[in-house]
Amino acid sequence: MSDVTLDASAANPEAAPRTAPVRSTGAMAWLRANLFSSWLNTALTLALAWLVVRFAIGFVDWAFINAIWSVPMQGTVPQTQICRDLEGAGACWAVIGEKHRFILFGTYPYEEHWRPLLVCGLFIGLYIFSAMRRFWTWVLVPVWAVTLTVIGILMWGGILGLSYVPQERWGGLPITLILSTFGLAFAFPLAILVALGRRSKLPAIKTLCVVYVELVRGVPLISLLFMASVMFPLFLPEGMNIDKLLRAQIAITLFAGAYLAEVVRAGLQTLPRGQYEAADALGLSYWQKTGFIILPQALRLVIPPLVNTFIGFFKDTSLVLIIGIFDLLTAGKTAIVEPAWQGFGIEVYVFVGAIYLVFCFAMSKYSQDLERDLNQHRRR
Amino acid sequence: MGETIDHEARFASAMRTDAPPAIVLQDVNKWFGALHVLRDINLSVATGERVVVCGPSGSGKSTMIRCINRLEQHQQGKIIVDGIELSDDLRSLDAIRREVGMVFQSFNLFPHLTVLENCTLAPIWVRRMPKKEAEDLAMEYLERVRIPEQAKKFPGQLSGGQQQRVAIARALCMKPKIMLFDEPTSALDPEMIKEVLDTMVMLAETGMTMICVTHEMGFARQVADRVVFMDRGEIVESGEPEALFSDPKTDRLKLFLSQILRGH
């Protein structure tokens, strides 16, 4: 028997020396499996790679290599001829350098720009503070109240030696942050109440909530904004006037509330009946049951669609441009109305888009972390 | 009918003590739509009495005990728990739910709270107990159901038997006068049924007033003062477990016993 074993390689072709098996791990293996597994895949990979590289080179050329970062001034008029001579081959970032303060702060008095800048800083600080879970206690309430009061004082002025700035002159990023922060801060609790109301056993409350959601959701945001800005003042008694920004704010809050209410309701419906029964059997009151058992579970489940809606509304605040409020996007559009800078829209929109992207990406990233942290109990 | 109910026997055990009965159901009727699920239920449970309710599925036994803490509402008759009549008055309902603990077939623990938080939530918020005291009490009961080491875990990390023992501890933390068990072992794997039944036997030995809906005849024999057999929404027969099981008077109980004994 032993010679058979020794001679196996000759006798048995199976045992002949073989080439090493194809690697199944590592970068090369991954590329082979995912990008070059067939001739069709290889062709697609190469074609797309060519497009990506071409686009990337084109963008780098436009945004950096051929870009012009500043233009000479003649008196107060910028000489933009050298930008125009590029004919689109390079970006004219000079428009941002020249106009960034207008884009960020609109028609707010130039020498007072530190005030809206500080306001933006306060907003961002407030977001970061509120995002930390160790501060999720009652301490948030005074912090928000104080910060929002300071923001109001800074924007309006008129006291503490600050000059008064009427709301019509506010603009740019602070408007976008004010509309979305107040809008979502009020819309979210409203949405929770409406979602609970839609499941109420009391017919009057239930009907009211259903009518609210269906009415508001069935109308475009633009028409709500128009109603708030044009029609609503007609119903007010003579001489009474509610701030235009406040009216837009209310319209946005109501609109966001209706959408968020449906998201929250979806979360409420996923909870099994046993959770309600266990809470009832322990003698918890309606609000204890809702606050400790139902909402904590329901809201965790709907974090992704909630943040989806939040991000959507952050960007939808730009619709206020149609009623003449100067948010970030409107300020950007207005910045290039000046004859010297006409035609440099792409640069301005890239700049404005980047600001929106930073905020939206931060929200998205934060929600992913939150979802992971808060759903630890569902991991085994 | 041939299925007469011996009223004397039914109230006999309630008469043994002078204390007022813990639970009285008087001519209770309930319908789910057109379905008549409880028919003229009369039942009186004395303080400290342990009653096992059995019967085929759909016989109304779960509905009956769910009426006792008003998870379901009855439409006719009277239910008096701990001297308080159940009505639409929310204050009397709160008072009753504070005194009646319930254990469910599907545990119904709160998955987002730890085992300890599950046990302390109601004592803190309903009984207004200081947090430290509630935690000490919870640990005491978790030790009694023999899982103190799981206090910091989430329910999803525990086995079914452990979860049900936590559910029992959670109910006990409210220091109820009465405990209701709604098929507590029906959702468990066979090897876990014993640990839950042992916990219930231990509880019975403390003199707790208990109503258990269960098919565990061994448990009924061991701890029940009285077994109530229900079928099609009525109480068909009731009596001491040994007498009831060895000498069933009605055909319906005979049939039921033959079915569950075959299953064992």
From TrEMBL, chain A:
It comes from the Bacteria. Residues 173-367 form the ABC transmembrane type-1 domain. InterPro entries: AA_ABC_transptr_permease_3TM (IPR010065), ArtM/GltK/GlnP/TcyL/YhdX-like (IPR043429), MetI-like (IPR000515), MetI-like_sf (IPR035906). It is a multi-pass membrane protein. Belongs to the binding-protein-dependent transport system permease family. HisMQ subfamily. It comes from Falsiroseomonas selenitidurans. This is Amino acid ABC transporter permease. Keywords: Cell membrane, Membrane, Transmembrane, Transmembrane helix, Transport. The lineage of its organism: Bacteria, Pseudomonadati, Pseudomonadota, Alphaproteobacteria, Acetobacterales. NCBIfam families: HEQRo_perm_3TM (TIGR01726). The chain crosses the membrane at residues 39-65, 114-132, 139-165, 177-197, 209-236, 248-268, 306-326, 346-364. It is found in: Cell inner membrane; Cell membrane.
From TrEMBL, chain B:
InterPro entries: AAA+_ATPase (IPR003593), ABC_ATPase_HisP-typ (IPR030679), ABC_transporter-like_ATP-bd (IPR003439), ABC_transporter-like_CS (IPR017871), MetN_ABC_transporter-like (IPR050086), P-loop_NTPase (IPR027417). SUPFAM superfamilies: P-loop containing nucleoside triphosphate hydrolases (SSF52540). SMART domains: AAA. Keywords: ATP-binding, Nucleotide-binding, Transport. It holds the Pfam family ABC_tran. GO terms for molecular function: ATP binding. Residues 23-257 form the ABC transporter domain. It comes from the Bacteria. Belongs to the ABC transporter superfamily. This is Amino acid ABC transporter ATP-binding protein.
